[in-house]
Amino acid sequence: MDQYQEQMTGLFQALADPTRRAVLGRLGRGPASIGELAKPFAMALPSFMKHIHLLEESGWIHTRKEGRVRICALEKKQFATVETWLSDQRALWEARTDRLERFVMTKQKKEKSK
Amino acid sequence: MSRSFNPDLDLKVSRIIKAPRAAVWSAWTDPESFAQWWIPAPTLCKVVAMELRPGGAFVTQMSDNGGPFVPHLDACFLAVDEGTRIVFTNCLTGGWRPAEQAFITAIITLKDHPQGTDYEAYAMHRNIADRNKHEELGFHDGWGTVTAQLAKLVE
To answer: In CATH, what number does B10-130 get?
Structure first.
């Protein structure tokens, strides 16, 4: 799998989980500490950290240490990546349909002039 | 068929082609014709297999600058309804064998139209994310913009 596809798979996999989506939703309002992010969830911190790691690895968020607190923030450019990927796919199908149309039209013309 | 459009992962390209449905169908299903439009020139396309039946292999290769032919698509037909519909996926290869990499299921439909043929390519891309993520991420600015742009695809 090429790097781009791998990255896309990672981005979408990260979105597949409700906890991770909620974390992204919260971070959409601004950076937050892990403690603050974990608060609404009834799960042990190690389990919650797994979600944070996955979000970080996939590229949706980045984290930094401020003193003894780890702060998470959204990686905004990933939203653009997802969008670009789909518009690339769309462009591909549009162009493919253009070529099909042109091919059929040219063939029709040739057959008529025979 | 029940399917709902997922603007994050699905796309739909529709076109009225001013030619009879049979002509469009033939451009799609005659390997020699198909090879002429499937991949943009100057890249060459070779149809290795086009077994037009459910489970049939659908394999194309491409070649750039006179180089060797390399894999392009390795897929499996799921449905082929003469003259009206072609469904294929690369989640499977010929003979229903599970594929290493799954990426897309495409549904091509052809309908008669007063001006010729109503052609539609509907592509669904792989993802595990469910469709509720929009609602949950809806209040995020960046996401909102993306959603608005993606929503245009639904038309």
So the answer is: 3.30.530.20
Contact B146 A83 (CB under 8 A): yes
Contacts with A33 (C-beta within 8 Å, 6 or more apart), sequence order: A69, A70, A71, A72
Query: Span A1-75: which CATH code?
Result: 1.10.10.10
| Nearest alpha carbon to residue B142 among A28, A37, A81 | A28
Question: A21 contacts in B (CB within 8 Å)?
Answer: 132-133, 136-137
- Would you list the domain boundaries of chain B? 10-130
pLDDT tens column, B78-134: 999 999 999 999 899 999 999 887 778 999 999 999 999 999 999 888 753 332 333
Closest CA to A75 of A10, A19, A16: A10
Residue A112 gets the label, from left (phi > 0), alpha (psi -120 to 50) or beta, of alpha
Q: How do the pLDDT tens digits run along chain A, 114 residues long?
A: 466 667 767 777 787 778 888 888 788 778 899 999 999 888 999 999 999 999 999 888 999 998 889 999 988 777 666 666 677 778 888 889 999 999 999 998 888 887
How far apart (Å, rounded) are the C-alpha atoms in residues B139 and B142? 9
Q: Specify the pTM.
A: 0.62
Instruction: Tell me the per-residue pLDDT of A44-61, one tens digit each, with 9 for 90 and over.
Output: 999 999 999 999 998 889
B42 interface with A at CB cutoff 8 Å: no
β-partners of residue B107 are B87, B122
Q: Is B113 part of the contact surface with chain A (CB cutoff 8 Å)? A: no
For B50-68, what is each residue's pLDDT tens digit? 999 999 999 999 888 888 8
Domain-by-domain residue ranges, chain A? 1-75, 77-114
